[in-house]
Design a protein that fits this description.
The chain is α/β, with parallel strands linked by helices. Helices cover about 55% and strands about 10% of the residues. The chain has helices at about 40-55, 70-75, 85-95, 105-120, 130-165, 170, 180-185, 190-195, 200-205, 215-225, 235, 240-250, 255-270, 275-280, 285-295, 300; strands at about 5-15, 20-25, 30-35, 60-65, 80-85.
């Protein structure tokens, strides 16, 4: 793109509630500064005014993000050329001209404008991926967040079980499994599981795809001969710890999170079945995601260990 094709240069410092904007016309010396409220109507009205002002000619916008609400709003306009600037690059640019190193939000948009208008040839214009690739990126990102939630929950449950019921870690299978959730919901402590009939436990494990008789028999033997870690009433009594303990173990968050993970896995697999080129551009596939974060299917979660 040639330099003279740009009619206006804009630096945008986005925020949760307000966006600071610095604007300068091509070849002009006057710099305009104003703020835009973080509301869709306000943002789109400003873009409409910008189009009318430039007669539809190209407008270059530098912004410190590659995705987010502002980018999503601006990417639909064909006359806007977006230049995402790495925050580290802007920080170094700021250090070169502001020796104090103080971060002043209004000045960020001014620095973005200065960087864009003087060094646009060193910046790369952002070209959005296809709809399919962007959808796959969002699905993988949301799945990773849910995996992090699952890990936090399973770590919390593991820590809690170690305080009063460590044997359960050998009996529930994978902590991040439906089998574990239902085991702890039915029998949240040693006394509860030792009151259960052998046939009930056998049926429970078989319902969760644990088909090895030797594994089931060994678990039942261990349950029958197990001794509690402690008899301290403060730990195993009715209050106050057990109430909190039971609330955590019976929390629906873990089963619902795993259910959402399975649904996301299905959608990601479906997305990767699209033409191969978009997936190669993204540089990831669902198998890589699964290998990194672990299985999500019901069968895989019901461990036979």
């Amino acid at each position: 793109m040639k330099e003279q094709e740009i009619a206006v240069y804009v630096g945008v410092d986005w925020g949760d509630e307000w966006h600071s904007v610095h604007l300068q016309a091509e070849g002009g010396t006057q710099i305009e500064h104003f703020e835009l409220e973080q509301k869709p109507d306000v943002l789109h009205e400003w873009v409409a005014q910008l189009r009318q002002r430039t007669g539809g000619r190209k407008v270059a916008i530098a912004i410190e993000q590659r995705k987010g609400a502002v980018i999503h709003a601006l990417m639909m306009y064909d006359f806007l050329v977006l230049y995402p600037v790495n925050p580290k690059a802007l920080a170094r640019y700021r250090e070169a001209f502001r020796t104090s190193g103080a971060k002043d939000d209004p000045a960020d948009s001014e620095l973005l404008l200065d960087l864009l208008s003087k060094h646009r040839d060193k910046l790369r214009a952002w070209i959005p991926d296809t709809v399919e690739v962007r959808k796959l990126q969002l699905l993988c990102e949301q799945r990773r967040k849910m995996v992090n939630q699952r890990v936090a929950l399973t770590n919390r449950i593991t820590s809690l079980l170690k305080q009063y019921f460590p044997q359960a870690l050998d009996w529930v299978g994978d902590i991040a499994s439906i089998q574990c959730c239902e085991f702890l919901m039915n029998w949240p402590d040693l006394a509860a599981v030792q009151r259960v009939r052998k046939t009930t436990l056998e049926k429970f494990y078989r319902c969760h795809n644990c088909r090895k008789a030797s594994v089931i028999d060994e678990r039942i033997r261990q349950i029958a001969s197990a001794h509690p870690l402690t008899s301290d009433p403060a730990i195993v009594g009715e209050n106050p710890i057990p109430g909190c303990r039971r609330q955590i173990l019976l929390s629906p968050w873990l089963p619902s999170t795993m259910g959402r993970l399975r649904r996301f896995g299905t959608r990601i697999v479906s997305a990767t079945n699209q033409p191969r080129q978009p997936v190669r551009r993204l540089g990831m596939d669902f198998r890589a995601e699964t290998a990194r974060f672990g299985p999500t299917s019901h069968t895989q979660m019901s461990s036979e260990r």
